[in-house]
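Researcher: We plan to redesign the surface later, but first we want a full-length starting point. C-alpha cells attached.
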C-alpha cells in the first residue's frame, strides 16, 4: 500500500507539471478563497489585540474601575483603606488638580498641558509604554521635589527636561524621570503625570478657585478620583462596575461622606465589552470567506473532471502497465491536493506581504497603540493551508472515482 501511495504522489506531481495552464486555472479560485480566509483571521487577531491595547492604555487592565467621591474627604487614608478592603487589588490616585498647574523649562512656560496626580501603582493598572527613562518608583513618593513623567509631545516642548519647574502661584523645581511614547489614546495632546508626594499634596488637593455648578458633569470629575483594579470575578464588576460604589458608600462615614450618591464608580476597561461584537463580526466574515473558498473548490472540481476526461488514454496506459486502482486514485486526488496546497502557499505569501505593508503604514502614521502590528497568526497559517489541502482532497475524490470507473480497453482505443 505504501508503494502504491508513493507512486500515486509521484504521478500527481508529474501531472501537475505537465499541465501548467490547467494548474494555474485551478489555483486562481483557491488563492482568492484561502487568501480571504487568512485575511479574516489576520483582521480578527489584529482587532482583538488593538481592543486590548486600547483598553489597557485608555482605561486599564481588565477589571479596572474609576471611582469618584464628590465633596470634601475628611480622612483620605481611610478612603483609600476602604478602597482596598472593598476588593481593590491595585489602587492609584487619578486626580485632576483643582487649579491649573503651569510647567516651564527655562524662562518660557508651555501652554495647554494636562496634569494628572497619580500614585506609583498606576503602572500596575494601566499599560504604559516608556520611550525614555522609567515610571515612578516607591522611593519617588517620598521626594521633597515634585516628580513627573511626561509624554513625548510635552518633552519636545521642554528645552531641557533636566531643568523643569512647575507651579500654580509660584515656581518649584521638579524632576522628570521618564517620557511616555505618544499615543492617540493620551488624555491630552501634552500630558504630565504628577506623582503624589509631600511636595505635591497642596497642588493636587487645593480647592478650586471657582465653584462648579451642581448640574455640571465635570463637578464630579476632579475632586477625589481613583483608579481601582479588582478581581474580574468580583461582584462589584456587575452592572459596569456601579455595584462597587454601593459597597463604598456603606462605609462613607469613615471619611466624611454625607450623601451616599456622592460615590460613583464605572468600568473604564473596554476589552471585554468589545470582545462579543468582534466575535460576531469575525464569524460573519469567516462565513463569507468560506463561501469564496467553496467557489474555489468548485473550480478545482470542474478542472479535475475535465482533466480526467482528457487523460483517459494516459490513465488507461498506466493501468495496462501494472498501476493499481489505488495508485491511480491517489494520483488523481493528490494532483488536486498539490494544486490546492500550492495555491494556499501563494495566498499565504500574499497575506504575509499585505501584513508587512499594513504594519509599516499604521506604524508610520501612528494609527495604533505601540506594540500592536498586523501579522499572520499561527492559527491563520494552519487554517489557510489546512483548508487548501481539504479543498483539494474534496475536489479530487469525484474525478478520481470517475477515473477508476473508466474502461481500460476503451481508454486505450482513444
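Model: Full-length starting sequence:
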Amino acid at each position: 500500500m505504501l508503494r502504491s501511495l508513493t507512486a500515486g504522489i509521484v504521478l500527481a506531481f508529474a501531472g501537475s507539471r505537465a499541465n501548467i495552464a490547467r494548474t494555474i486555472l485551478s489555483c486562481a479560485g483557491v488563492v482568492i478563497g484561502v487568501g480571504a480566509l487568512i485575511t479574516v483571521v489576520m483582521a480578527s487577531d489584529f482587532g482583538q489585540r488593538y481592543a486590548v491595547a486600547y483598553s489597557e492604555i485608555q482605561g486599564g487592565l481588565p477589571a479596572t474601575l474609576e471611582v469618584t467621591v464628590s465633596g470634601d474627604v475628611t480622612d483620605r487614608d481611610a478612603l483609600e483603606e476602604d478602597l482596598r478592603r472593598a476588593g481593590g487589588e491595585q489602587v492609584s490616585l487619578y486626580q485632576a488638580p483643582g487649579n491649573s498647574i503651569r510647567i516651564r523649562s527655562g524662562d518660557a512656560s508651555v501652554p495647554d498641558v494636562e496634569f494628572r496626580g497619580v500614585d506609583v501603582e498606576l503602572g500596575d493598572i494601566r499599560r504604559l509604554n516608556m520611550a525614555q527613562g522609567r515610571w515612578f518608583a516607591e522611593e519617588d513618593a517620598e521626594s521633597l521635589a515634585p516628580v513627573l513623567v511626561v509624554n513625548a509631545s510635552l518633552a519636545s516642548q521642554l528645552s531641557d527636561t533636566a531643568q523643569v519647574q512647575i507651579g500654580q502661584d509660584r515656581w518649584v523645581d521638579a524632576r522628570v524621570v521618564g517620557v511616555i511614547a505618544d499615543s492617540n489614546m493620551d488624555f491630552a495632546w501634552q500630558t504630565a503625570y504628577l506623582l503624589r508626594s509631600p511636595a505635591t499634596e497642596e497642588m493636587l488637593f487645593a480647592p478650586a478657585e471657582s465653584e462648579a455648578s451642581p448640574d455640571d458633569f465635570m463637578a464630579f470629575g476632579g475632586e477625589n478620583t481613583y483608579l481601582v483594579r479588582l478581581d474580574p470575578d468580583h461582584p462589584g464588576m456587575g452592572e459596569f462596575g456601579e455595584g462597587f460604589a454601593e459597597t463604598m458608600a456603606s462605609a462613607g462615614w469613615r471619611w466624611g461622606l454625607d450623601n451616599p450618591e456622592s460615590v460613583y464608580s464605572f468600568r473604564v476597561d473596554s476589552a471585554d465589552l468589545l470582545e462579543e461584537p468582534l466575535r460576531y463580526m469575525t464569524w460573519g466574515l469567516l462565513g463569507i470567506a468560506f463561501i469564496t473558498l467553496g467557489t474555489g473548490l468548485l473550480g478545482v472540481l470542474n478542472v479535475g473532471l475535465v482533466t480526467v476526461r482528457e487523460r483517459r488514454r494516459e490513465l488507461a496506459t498506466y493501468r495496462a502497465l501494472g498501476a493499481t486502482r489505488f495508485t491511480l486514485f491517489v494520483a488523481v486526488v493528490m494532483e488536486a491536493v498539490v494544486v490546492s496546497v500550492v495555491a494556499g502557499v501563494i495566498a499565504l505569501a500574499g497575506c504575509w506581504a499585505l501584513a508587512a505593508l499594513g504594519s509599516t503604514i499604521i506604524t508610520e502614521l501612528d494609527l495604533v497603540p505601540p506594540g500592536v502590528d498586523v501579522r499572520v497568526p499561527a492559527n491563520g497559517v494552519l487554517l489557510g493551508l489546512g483548508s487548501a489541502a481539504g479543498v483539494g482532497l474534496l475536489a479530487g475524490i469525484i474525478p478520481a472515482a470517475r477515473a477508476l470507473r473508466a474502461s481500460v480497453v476503451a481508454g486505450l482505443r482513444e
